[in-house]
């Protein structure tokens, strides 16, 4: 578990970004307003994205590719997905070996959650601090916690 202040989100995003490799899937779980999109934006900024990344709430999938970022990334927000079968239509795994998936609300995937997904659960510690708990798959051993 990592506890951090909202002013430390950029540093946490940098640490996670340094650990990313093509093919990685990172799930961001937590209640509304916990900081899933904020953490995703910090990771994207650390990968070189200039300006603020739009929330993919309506588009569902927001792609980023070099030279905009150092690694191809799909930032996904599954909040509006009502049936896990809809996931297949998104094509998230069409090129999964060559890109990183940042998935908000991965629990909406049902049985389609990748076995090798690093799941980061964000909870409120208090108004200005968050608690991040990681479920670390074997593919992430040696890379988690990020340095």
Automatic annotation (TrEMBL):
Any one cellular-component term (Gene Ontology): cytoplasm
Family: Belongs to the TsaE family.
Subcellular location: Cytoplasm
Record flagged with keyword Transport: no
Name recorded for this polypeptide: tRNA threonylcarbamoyladenosine biosynthesis protein TsaE
Origin superkingdom: Bacteria
InterPro entries in the cross-refs: P-loop_NTPase (IPR027417), T6A_TsaE (IPR003442)
A Pfam family hit: TsaE
MF terms (GO), sorted A to Z: ATP binding; metal ion binding; transferase activity
Keyword annotations from UniProtKB, A to Z: ATP-binding, Cytoplasm, Magnesium, Metal-binding, Nucleotide-binding, Transferase, tRNA processing
GO biological process, one term: tRNA threonylcarbamoyladenosine modification
């Amino acid at each position: 578990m990592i506890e951090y202040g909202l002013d430390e989100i950029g540093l946490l995003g940098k640490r996670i970004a340094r650990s990313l490799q093509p093919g990685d899937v990172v799930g961001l779980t937590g209640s509304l307003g916990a900081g899933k999109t904020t953490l995703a934006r910090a990771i994207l900024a650390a990968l070189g994205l200039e300006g603020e990344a739009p929330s993919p709430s309506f588009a569902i999938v927001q792609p980023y590719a070099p030279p905009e970022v150092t690694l191809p990334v799909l930032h996904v927000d599954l909040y509006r997905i009502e049936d896990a079968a809809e996931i297949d239509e998104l094509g998230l795994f069409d090129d999964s070996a060559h890109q990183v998936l940042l998935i908000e609300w991965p629990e909406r995937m049902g049985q389609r959650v990748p076995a090798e997904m690093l799941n980061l659960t964000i909870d409120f510690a208090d108004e200005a601090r968050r608690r991040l708990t990681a479920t670390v798959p074997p593919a992430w051993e040696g890379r988690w916690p990020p340095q």
